Amino acid sequence: xxxxGLNRQAAVRGQGNVFIVGLAGPSGSxxxxxxxxxxxxxxxxxxxxxxxxxxxxxxxxxxxxxLDYDAPHATDVELLESQIRDYASGTAIEAPIYDFAQxxxxxxxxxHVPAKSLLIVEGILALHFAELPPLFDxxxxxxxxxxxxFHRRKVRDITERQRSLDFILWQYKxxxxxxxxxxxxxxxxxxxxxxxxxxxLPAVEKSVYDAIADSRFLAATR
Length: 222
Description:
The protein has one domain: Rossmann fold, CATH 3.40.50. It contains seven helices and seven strands. A five-stranded parallel β-sheet has the order 2-5-1-6-7, with helices on both faces. The radius of gyration is 17 Å and the shape is globular.
């Protein structure tokens, strides 16, 4: 992990003391919730790879809903990498905003994200894209059984994204599970730390918090 940190410092000049964490794992493993809680406690920011979906606003809603957003080609990785590098250099970024209920990127608004000392980049493909892991000081992978992940995703999609149960089942079977097996699970080998997230989320949050705090301390003493 020390070698990777040195490589990242060489690749991103002038980053100051920004510490960047990549948080990966299957959909429903708890990434978004844990990232937000930990970033809040450590006075950092989170960017979600989901919001960097490519702009398909020209398509009607019915067609947008059927697209496979879990596949790598659905992510604007060039923009994502560019904004991580900007943040690492101490520059505020204008992160995209995504409307999950309408399956579209909001074209006239952005989230202003001022650079702080910590950034957590969370998403199922955080460790899949070759461009990203060299930018991370710490890479964490959360894993949980399919049934746990599906339950969490179902609750989120119904309560937060106004999606029907039929659509949730269709999307999980046709997009989410195939992508997890083809892209997400193989990326686990790039993680510095693999954590089980089947336990209650506060316990997982503590493990992630401790891992980041310890790694930041070690990085500061190098």
